Amino acid sequence: PPAARLPHRGGRHALPKPPTRETLAATLLLASGWTPQEALLDPMCGSGTIVIEAALMARQMAPGRARRFAAEAWPGLPAAIWPEARRRAAARELPGVAVSLLGADRDAGAIEAAMANAERAGVAGDVEFVRGTLSRLPHDEGDGWIITNPPYGTRIGERTALRDLYASLGHLVTQRRPRWHLAMISADRMLEGQLGFPLREVLRTTNGGLPVRVVVTGER
Question: How far is it, in rounded angstroms, from Cα 186 to Cα 129?
Answer without folding.
Answer: 23
